[in-house]
Structure formats: structure tokens, C-alpha cells
Amino acid sequence: MSLSIARNAFARSFKPAFSTTAVLSRGKATLPDLDYDFGALEPFISGQINEVHYTKHHQTYVNSYNAAIEQVQQAQAVGDVKTQVELTNVIKFHGGGHINHSLFWKNLAPKSQGGGEPPAANSPLGKAISQYYGNLDNLIGNVNAKLAGVQGSGWAWIVKNKDTGALEVISKPNQDIVDGPHIPIVGIDAWEHAYYLQYKNVKVDYFKAIWNVVNWQEAERRFSA
Ligand code: MN3
């Protein structure tokens, strides 16, 4: 799979969730292509987890989002406002799940493709890490503390505050997306489905391990975009 094809598929899959005009069109959300095999993140994330996570969980967000959009269009056609309002929660949840997971796959990479390699100290992201967190280990510690604090299901994110330029660490419940002044840089999925098949109840081991396959090149691109 070439990078450009992967990028195009990624861009296509993003449009419906971000753009009002796309929502009103017949365009469907689709699973983005992965840049690596399911087993390529082992031993840190098992191939079985990635396969189930991508083909079952992410696919369900895509399917349910598409179904809800169709229902909205039908409700719109007959002037059924109540149904349209009810569907907004479904769209927020499943559309959010699609957006978050599309970011998640891209912000991971196998060791052989640079996974876990820290950003260069003199890069824009490297400098921001140094400025706001002192060093990468301290930033990761902050994210892991946020992850440990997620009650039920949710995510922790390293974000850039576009108003201040600051690097921040935030958590989001359920499938709420990173929004407002925040631009997602790295997102870690703290839902049980992201680790349970491998780590069972010891989620802190998953939070420690996943940094071995975080794609800091992608983070750098998002930070500098
Ligand atoms: Mn997930």
C-alpha cells in the first residue's frame, strides 16, 4: 500500500465527520487503511487486539455513524425534528469514535517504522516538550496519570493549544473529540477494548508499553501543521 493511497483513504474517511456539506451529501465514512500489519506492534500491543479493535470496534463506529446520518436525512426529508435531535448523540458518539480511532492508528507505528523514537530535541515539538514538560519522560508521566484517572471509558491526549501554542495533556470521556482550541497531537485509547485481551485488569502496563510504538513523526507533523 503506498503512502499516497493511504493518505487519500485517510482524508476521504475524515470528510464526513468534519464537514457539514459532506454530512449532507451521500459520502460515507470508511475505515482508513492501516500503515502496518495487525501484528506489527507486538509485543506492546497484540495482533489480536489490533485486529478486533480495527475490524470490530472501529468498523462499528463507522457503520453506526453512517446509519445515523442516513436516518437524519430520512427524518429531515419528512420534517421530523425530534428524531433529528435524538440522533445528534448517536452521531457525536460514533462519529467521534471514527475520528479518534483514525487519529489513533496514525499515531502508532511499529519499531521498524520509527515507533517509539522520540522527537528531535531541536524540532518544534521537541522544543515544546522541553519548554512545557522538561523532558519526554515527564510528559509521558503526565499522560499516564491522566489515563489512570479516566473513569469508565475515555482517552488521554497530548494537544497543542492553538491560542497559546502550549503543549497540554487532557482527557476526554467516551468518544468525545478533541475540540475548541485544542489540536490532537497524540491520543491514547483508555477503553477496556484497547488492552483487555492482553493486559487484563493491569491497564497501567498497557499505558507504559504503548509509548514503545508511538509515532512521534506523526506527532511532529500534527504539531507543526
Ligand atoms: Mn478504541
Automatic annotation (TrEMBL):
It comes from the Eukaryota. Keywords: Antioxidant, Manganese, Metal-binding, Oxidoreductase. Pfam families: Sod_Fe_C, Sod_Fe_N. GO terms for cellular component: mitochondrion. Signal peptide: none annotated. GO terms for molecular function: manganese ion binding; superoxide dismutase activity. Its EC number is 1.15.1.1. Its cofactor is Mn(2+). Residues 123-222 form the Manganese/iron superoxide dismutase C-terminal domain. InterPro entries: Fe/Mn_Superoxide_Dismutase (IPR050265), Mn/Fe_SOD (IPR001189), Mn/Fe_SOD_BS (IPR019833), Mn/Fe_SOD_C (IPR019832), Mn/Fe_SOD_N (IPR019831), Mn/Fe_SOD_N_sf (IPR036324), SOD_C_sf (IPR036314). Mn(2+) binds at H53, H101, D189, H193. Residues 30-109 form the Manganese/iron superoxide dismutase N-terminal domain. It catalyses: 2 superoxide + 2 H(+) = H2O2 + O2. SUPFAM superfamilies: Fe,Mn superoxide dismutase (SOD), C-terminal domain (SSF54719), Fe,Mn superoxide dismutase (SOD), N-terminal domain (SSF46609). Belongs to the iron/manganese superoxide dismutase family. Destroys radicals which are normally produced within the cells and which are toxic to biological systems. This is Superoxide dismutase.
